[in-house]
C-alpha cells in the first residue's frame, strides 16, 4: 500500500539506466511455472526472472563512471532526462552474490533480505517473470486462479514478502519509448498504483527534473510511473493482506503533476487508488486466523490460492469478486470471515465488501471513484508478475502488521492490522536485527478455477 521503491541499495554505484552495458553478462535465473486446465492437467512453462532495473549498476556508456552516486545525478552525464538516458548504460546483474537472489530447487525462488558483497550491502530486491529473453510473461487472470507455495517463516515484523501483478508493458517500454534501449531483458518499465516518483528512469528518460535526495541512497523526482496493481500477497510471519488497486489509466503512464501522481494532499485525486480495497484477516476481525501456530500456521510453508471470479464465468467477463484459499498439511482452508460491525460476514473481495469496509473504517472510497472491480478486471487482462522482498522507509510497514495510523486509537475499527510493535519495522531496526531474513516462493501455477489445487 505504501511501497517504497528504489531505496534498496546502500552502495551508491548501483543505479538505473536505459542503454545496455557490456561489463556484466545478464543471465536470468530459471523459475518455471505450470499452466493448468483441470486438476492434474498442467503444462510446464520454462519461464525465468529478471531483476528490476532500479537495482542495477549504471555507468557512462564509454567507461566505468557512475551516472548516479549517493542520492545525486552526475551533472555532466545527466544535465537533463533525455541526455542522461543517452549517456548511461544499464548492466547485467550477479543475482546471487550481489543481490541474494537464488533458485534453491526447480520452481523455487529465494529472496534474501540483506546481502553483503564486494561492493557493500544490498537490501531487498524485486524481480519480474519473463517469457523468453526479451519480454515479460503476460497474464490474463479473469476467470482464472493463481496459486503458489510461500515460506514466510523467516520473515519477521516490518518486512514484506510481496507478490503482485502490475500493468506493465510486455517489452518494458522498449517499443514505446525511444530512449529505452534496454527493455524487459534488463527489468525496465516498472509502474504500480503508488505512482512512485523515486524511479530514476521513466518513459526512457531520467527523472532528473526536481530530483531531491530522500535518504543517503535514494531520492525522488518530478515524475511518477502509474499503473493498476493487484496485490496477491503482501505478508510476513505475522500479517497478510491481498488488495486490488485500480487506476484511471490502462497502461504504464508517467504522471507529471502532483495531482496526477496523487502526491501529498492529492492522494484522492491521482491516477490510481493508492489505498486499494484490502482484505487483512486481522484487520477484518479474525485475529487468530494467520500467524505462528494460528489457523494458517506461518511457521511452516503453505499454498496460497487466489481466484478471480467473473460475472458470466468467462475469460472476458466483468470481474465480480476475488477469493482466497490456503492449503496446509493436506487441508484446504477457506479465507477468514469478516467480523466487523457494518460489514457483511464474507470472506472475499467484492464492490459491496469494499463499500461497507470503507464506511465502517471511515476511509475514502477512492476505489469506487476510479472504477472499482470493473476497472481492476480490465487491467487483469494483461499483467506482469512481480516478486519482491522489502522494508518500508515511509511508514515502517505499520499499515500491514501494526496499528495505522500509529497515533490512532487501536480499538477504533480498521486501525489494528497486526500484532507487531510499530517500532519493529523501522528500517534501521529491522536491517540490523534481521539481516538473515528471507522468503521463498515456489510451485507457481495459473489456470482455470479449481484446476491448480485439490478443493475439499
Automatic annotation (TrEMBL):
GO biological process: cellulose catabolic process
Superkingdom of source: Eukaryota
One Pfam family of this chain: Glyco_hydro_7
Signal peptide coordinates: 1-17
Presence of the UniProt keyword Manganese in the record: no
EC assignment: 3.2.1.-
Annotated InterPro entries: ConA-like_dom_sf, Glyco_hydro_7, Glyco_hydro_7_sf
Top class in the EC scheme: hydrolase
SUPFAM superfamilies: Concanavalin A-like lectins/glucanases
Record's keyword annotation contains Signal: yes
GO molecular-function term, one example from the UniProt record: cellulose 1,4-beta-cellobiosidase activity
Keywords attached to this entry: Carbohydrate metabolism, Cellulose degradation, Glycosidase, Hydrolase, Polysaccharide degradation, Signal
Catalysed reactions, semicolon-separated: Hydrolysis of (1->4)-beta-D-glucosidic linkages in cellulose and cellotetraose, releasing cellobiose from the non-reducing ends of the chains
Similarity section: Belongs to the glycosyl hydrolase 7 (cellulase C) family.
PANTHER family referenced in this protein's UniProt entry, alphabetically: 1,4-BETA-D-GLUCAN CELLOBIOHYDROLASE B, GLYCOSIDE HYDROLASE FAMILY 7 PROTEIN
Protein name: Glucanase
Amino acid at each position: 500500500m505504501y511501497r517504497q521503491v528504489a531505496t534498496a541499495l546502500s552502495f551508491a554505484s548501483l543505479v538505473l539506466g536505459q542503454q545496455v552495458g557490456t561489463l556484466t553478462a545478464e543471465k536470468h535465473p530459471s523459475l518455471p511455472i505450470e499452466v493448468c486446465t483441470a486438476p492434474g492437467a498442467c503444462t510446464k512453462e520454462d519461464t525465468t526472472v529478471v531483476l528490476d532495473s532500479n537495482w542495477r549498476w549504471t555507468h557512462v556508456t564509454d567507461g566505468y563512471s557512475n551516472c548516479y552516486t549517493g542520492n545525486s545525478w552526475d551533472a555532466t552525464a545527466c544535465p537533463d532526462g533525455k541526455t542522461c538516458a543517452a549517456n548511461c548504460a544499464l548492466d547485467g546483474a550477479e543475482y546471487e552474490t550481489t543481490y541474494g537472489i537464488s533458485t534453491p530447487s526447480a520452481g523455487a525462488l529465494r529472496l534474501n533480505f540483506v546481502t553483503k558483497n564486494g561492493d557493500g550491502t544490498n537490501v531487498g530486491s524485486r524481480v519480474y517473470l519473463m517469457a523468453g529473453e526479451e519480454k515479460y510473461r503476460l497474464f490474463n487472470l479473469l476467470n482464472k486462479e493463481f496459486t503458489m507455495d510461500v515460506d514466510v517463516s523467516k520473515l519477521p515484523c516490518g518486512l514484506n514478502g510481496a507478490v503482485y501483478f502490475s500493468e506493465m508493458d510486455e517489452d518494458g517500454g522498449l517499443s514505446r519509448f525511444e530512449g529505452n534501449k534496454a527493455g524487459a531483458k534488463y527489468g525496465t518499465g516498472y509502474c504500480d498504483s503508488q505512482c512512485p516518483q523515486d524511479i530514476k528512469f521513466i518513459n526512457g528518460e531520467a527523472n532528473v527534473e526536481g530530483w531531491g535526495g530522500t535518504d543517503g541512497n535514494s531520492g525522488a523526482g518530478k515524475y511518477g510511473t502509474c499503473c493498476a496493481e493487484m496485490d496477491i500477497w503482501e505478508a510476513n510471519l505475522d500479517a497478510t493482506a491481498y488488495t486490488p488497486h485500480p487506476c484511471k489509466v490502462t497502461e504504464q503512464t508517467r504522471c507529471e503533476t502532483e495531482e496526477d501522481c496523487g502526491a501529498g494532499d492529492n492522494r484522492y485525486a491521482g491516477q490510481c487508488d493508492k489505498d486499494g480495497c484490502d482484505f487483512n484477516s486481522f484487520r477484518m476481525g479474525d485475529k487468530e486466523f494467520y500467524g505462528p501456530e494460528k489457523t494458517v500456521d506461518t511457521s511452516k510453508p503453505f499454498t496460497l490460492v487466489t481466484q478471480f471470479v467473473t460475472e458470466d464465468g468467462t475469460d472476458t467477463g466483468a470481474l465480480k469478486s476475488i477469493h482466497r484459499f490456503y492449503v496446509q498439511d493436506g487441508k484446504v482452508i477457506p479465507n477468514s470471515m469478516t467480523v466487523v460491525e457494518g460489514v457483511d460476514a464474507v470472506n472475499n473481495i467484492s464492490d459491496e465488501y469494499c463499500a461497507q469496509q470503507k464506511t465502517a473504517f471511515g476511509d475514502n472510497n477512492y476505489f469506487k471513484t476510479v472504477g472499482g472491480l470493473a476497472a481492476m478486471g480490465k487491467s487483469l487482462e494483461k499483467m506482469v508478475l512481480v516478486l519482491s522482498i522489502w522494508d518500508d522507509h515511509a511508514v515502517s510497514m505499520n499499515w500491514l502488521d501494526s496499528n495505522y495510523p500509529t497515533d490512532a486509537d487501536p480499538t477504533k475499527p480498521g486501525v489494528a492490522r497486526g500484532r507487531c510493535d510499530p517500532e519493529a519495522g523501522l528500517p534501521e531496526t529491522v536491517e540490523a536485527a534481521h539481516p538473515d531474513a528471507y522468503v521463498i516462493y515456489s510451485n507457481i501455477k495459473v489456470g482455470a478455477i479449481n484446476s491448480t489445487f485439490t478443493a475439499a
